[in-house]
Amino acid sequence: MLYRTLAILALFAASAASAHPQIELKGVSGPLADNIELYLDRLPAKNNLGSRRFQTKVIEDVKQAARAVGYYRINIEPSLVGKDNKQKLRLTITPGEAVRLKSVKVEILGEAATDPEFTKLVKQIGPKVNHRVHHGRYEEIKNQLNSLALRRGYFQARFVKQELSVAPRLLQGFIHIQFDSGPRYHFGEVSFEGSQIREERLRSMLPFKPGDYYQSSQLGELNQDLAETNWFRSIDVTVDDPENVEQQLAVKVKVEPQIRNIVETGLGYSTDLGPRIKLNWNKPWLNDRGHSLSSKMALSGPEQTVEAGYKWPKKNVTEDFYKLNFGIKNKDLEDTRSQEYNTALERHWLLEDAWYRTASLRWLYEDYVQGTDSGSANLIMPGISFSRSWDSGGSMPSKASRYLIGTEVSDPAWGSDSSFVRLRSRVGWIGSFSDDQRYLLRVDAGAVLMEAITELPPSLRFFAGGDNSIRGYSYESIAPVDAEGSLLGARYLATAAVEYQHRVSGNWWAAAFFDAGSAWNDKADIYRGVGLGVRWASPVGPIRIDLAWGLDVPSNQALQLHFSLGPEL
């Protein structure tokens, strides 16, 4: 006898379902048992187990479920076990040998025949000869072909043939799929409506040009790039009806300008700096060339900062721009008293491998007292940095990485007070063992190449300790000290953190961590910290509370409570 395709639930056979409370399975396990339970779970919770009609229905459902995953010679023996209200229908099942594919033909016709994405799809998830017949996977390859066709612009795609045949006596299955993609559509002309920004600026963000093959992902990329400029409060990207006989899809972009002034205020707290007040004032667009202005103020007991930045994009708006920054910072923390004045001109590029390159020229003037050392510094520092970050999305992503490496150089040849090279790097990774288990690794390092650290202002020296450094120690409390025991600051820095997190419930996680490192001049004395913490994936980002124990300080100073809000890397 020859069987045709079944309408089945086998696509979900890999996920276990709860068994029917009145039915007990014996003799099966794994995907076959899972799929049988999926079928039986659809039955009413209460049934007349001794009814021949009910038992016939159950046996037919089991056979359907078994055929869906390739078992056509299944034998089922029903029997009643238990007494009264604890009685169950036991199904003793002998699956028999599975039917395997003797022949598989998945043919791509039309323009997609030479499209490498279709070749890749069929190779990755397409059924193979000698695989067990599985109706769900057969349906999946068809669904994936349709989905890929829509994403890549084959709007006239159709199945010429879609057949799964089974010869149970021979234990053989046969698949023959012919998928005709038809012609592939192209992007047509792009029009913009409602924009306050020059059109050439917007066109520089187009990831395609008229005549290119259609890809839905590029429409999403355009939408995202427009949103990241912060020039618009709403963005709507649409395309023509795909019935266009010329296979040209005109793209229409309708936007509404962002308001010209955005003011944000907030209160915060961290164990590093204590209570803090923030005020941000941003002008997302100043003119039709897309220039913007940002400014922020943060006030806490130990630190007060005021910063402003003026940004103007080049031709490629999102990947190439200049930025002029100005900042004032007053600091009174531990043994440091300083006033900083910074001005920097930066040029930003997004490179082809997703790294950001930033070239800068920074002027720093700083008056300071660091322990028993005091003075002022006037420095001009050209620099360059490279950074790249990625995450899988969400407040607490399952996977993420961040890389940053940079250097600044100072020399009297161009008017600086001193000569040095300062190197700085920070890398971090987040990964997952499962949906409920995450890990975090972080390494932070820096070095200043110069003769004497006392020639350097405190903002360029290194200190360790605190929420994002070595937990179990107060903020910037680890560094070499002078003859009177006051913190001096260091030429070198190296810290590392290892953290394990386990989901307790919903968005709540428990964490255990170990931190280690030092800030030093001649010889590194390693400081270690261990502890436990709580993580909450809040709507505004991860909130972290840690109770840490410093292993290398007097016991009366060892216990530290750390609180922080924001990205983990």
Automatic annotation (TrEMBL):
One of its GO terms (biological process) is protein secretion. The keyword Membrane applies. GO terms for cellular component: cell outer membrane; TAM protein secretion complex. Keywords: Cell outer membrane, Membrane, Signal, Transmembrane, Transmembrane beta strand. It comes from the Bacteria. It is found in: Cell outer membrane. Residues 1-19 form the signal peptide. Pfam families: Omp85, POTRA, POTRA_TamA_1. Coiled coil: none annotated. Residues 183-258 form the POTRA domain. The keyword Cell membrane does not apply. Interacts with TamB to form the translocation and assembly module (TAM). Belongs to the TamA family. This is Translocation and assembly module subunit TamA. It comes from Rheinheimera mesophila.
